[in-house]
Amino acid sequence: MDFYEILIFVYVIVALMLIGFVLIQQGKGADMGASFGSGGSNTVFGSTGSGNFLTRTTAILATLFFVISLILGTQTNKKEKALDDWQNIEVPVIEQPVDSDVPATVTAKDSDAPMTAAPQEELEVPN
């Protein structure tokens, strides 16, 4: 594994952890219910609650996420992009061999004779 693949792996893990920590956090309205005695809120993380731990962890994960994003962006920018067959959509040139029985087409640029329009027949208009 090279450095780029390790960064991609760490990036995905940090993103999933960041999503999890954001979803675990309580909204600001949950503190109002706890102050009126609506249950044992925040008892898992101690009497101060989980706000401090979750907030710091979310901030650290968010910082890691953005730093890894910047590193991956610069690494991707330095990589040479492989050409895809669909990117080259030019019409292929078919070359005819010189010994061919089929005569080559002559264009106006190739011929020395001036290009003249074919004579048009005059139509007789009945009176």
Write a structural description.
- This protein is mainly α.
- It has a domain at 3-78.
- Helices cover 44% and strands 0% of the residues.
- The longest helix is centred in the middle third of the chain and has 28 residues, at 51-78.
- The mean pLDDT is 74.
Largest sheet: none
User: How many strands appear in the DSSP assignment?
Assistant: 0
The portion of residues assigned to helices is 40-55%
| Helix/strand structural class | mainly alpha
List the helices and strands and how they pair.
Elements: H1 3-24, H2 30-35, H3 51-78
Short summary:
By secondary structure, the protein is mainly α. Helices cover 44% and strands 0% of the residues. Helix 1 packs antiparallel against helix 3 (51-78).
Structural descriptors:
mainly alpha, 127 residues
